[in-house]
Amino acid sequence: MKRILLSLTLVVCVMMARAQSTVMEIQWSDGTINYSGLVVLYPDNSGCCKVKYFLPYVGWIWCYQDARLSTSTDIYGNVTSYINCFNPRCSEPYAADNFVIYPNGQMFTRDAAGSWSTRIVAVVIQPIYWAAKKAEYGL
Q: 35 with 23: CB under 8 angstroms?
């Protein structure tokens, strides 16, 4: 797991350095609802995030959001990446997601209190599978 997380950080940094797109499938839970999504980031650091989750009396909810990747580097050269989503479009009220990827590869989203405490499980999708994943998420 640690190896996957470290490779996630490396892929995001390499993507920015080589101007390549990247596609990640993400999953998390807030304790009552399980979320999964697809994050697509383009060479200009823009992108999108499509999230799906299930509400028992409503069914599957799909939410499309625009996304922007940014990074910050501390005095030791450690790079932290941020994926800020905005303009959510879905059938139910939904707050835009924000994600952070720390130098050690761990990825989190904000909880209801605004803390980076909700752990994200992320898998970088290899280019050969991009079309299938985008079709699965309707992108």
A: no
Task: Say whether pLDDT at 18 is over 60.
Answer: no
How far apart are the C-alpha atoms of 24 and 109, rounded to whole Å?
15
Residue with tokens 């950080």: 9
φ, ψ dihedrals at 117, nearest 5°: -120, -10
* Residue 42 to residues 58, 80, 116, Cα–Cα distance (Å): 33, 18, 24
Give the number of other Cβ atoms within 10 Å of residue 63's Cβ.
22
pTM for the full predicted model? 0.80
Q: Which domains does the chain have, with CATH numbers?
A: 2-136 (2.40.128)
Tokens of 128: 């050969």
Angle at 37 between CA 121 and CA 1, to 5 degrees: 15
Please check the confidence at residue 68 and state whether its pLDDT lies above 90.
yes
Checking if the pLDDT of 45 tops 90, the result is yes
Three-state DSSP at 133 gives helix
> Where is pLDDT greater, at 57 or 2?
57
Q: What angle is formed at CA 110 by the lines to CA 6 and CA 139, rounded to 5 degrees? A: 75
